[in-house]
From TrEMBL:
Alphabetized HAMAP family for the sequence: RNA_methyltr_E (MF_01547)
Residue ranges occupied by any Ribosomal RNA methyltransferase FtsJ domain in the UniProt entry: 29-205
Pfam families in the cross-refs: FtsJ
Name of the featured protein: Ribosomal RNA large subunit methyltransferase E
Residue positions binding S-adenosyl-L-methionine: 61, 63, 81, 97, 122
Length: 206
């Protein structure tokens, strides 16, 4: 059996001892990431009863779980991912790549003429271990999410997207400001301190 690297042992130790991992198991969430969205929403009140939103890169589904609880019977959650995702009550899931026209058409059929109030995106690329490549891939996904939001979010709506600090951050922030009147950064407590991840929140779509 292959020996685990020091970094993977450290991750495993951190994961096993992570209070948010234990809370997620206890509360029935599929991943600790649920608490990042819950904390941001507590501060910014993005998702409320009646909100219609899309969750991009939704698998395994913890953000969709949170969103479906918050939007209630009057709201709607549409989730998209290339990977499969176990069903969640109140969530319409489309498995596919949202860059593809056929997948977008499926979403547009489900929307039935409605615009979205909000797009949430906790996507990250498969990490190659090369900082330059990983950062480039990450911001490519961010740009796709911004393009999607620009096309499908109503005037006055919002986008919450995960980014990584480093090359490309300021350029992407500037691109968001062209679409949204305000762009703020969020670093929830559930985001590990050593992680360079941040969330950018664009509000009041132009």
């Amino acid at each position: 059996m292959a020996q685990r690297s020091k970094s993977s042992k450290a991750w495993l130790h951190e994961h096993v001892n992570d209070p948010y991992v234990h809370r997620a198991q206890k509360d029935g969430y599929r991943a600790r990431a649920a608490y990042k969205l819950l904390e941001i929403n507590e501060k910014d009140k993005l998702i409320r009863a009646g909100t219609v939103l899309a969750d991009l890169g939704s698998a395994p589904g913890s953000w969709s779980q949170v969103a479906s609880q918050l939007v209630g019977a009057q709201g709607k959650v549409f989730a998209l991912d290339i990977l499969p995702m176990q069903p969640i009550d109140g969530v319409d899931f489309i498995q596919g790549d949202f860059r593809e026209q056929a997948v977008l058409e499926q979403l547009e059929q489900l929307l039935n003429g409605r615009k979205l109030d909000l797009v949430i995106c906790d996507m990250a690329p498969n990490m190659a271990g090369n900082a330059v490549i990983d950062q480039t891939r990450s911001y490519y996904l961010c740009e796709l999410a911004l393009d999607f939001a620009a096309a499908h979010v109503k005037t006055g709506g919002a986008l919450l997207v995960k980014v990584f600090q480093g090359a490309g951050f300021q350029a992407f922030q500037a691109a968001m400001r062209e679409v949204f009147a305000t762009v703020q950064t969020r670093k929830p407590d559930a985001s590990r301190n050593r992680s360079s991840e941040l969330y950018l929140l664009g509000r009041n779509k132009r």
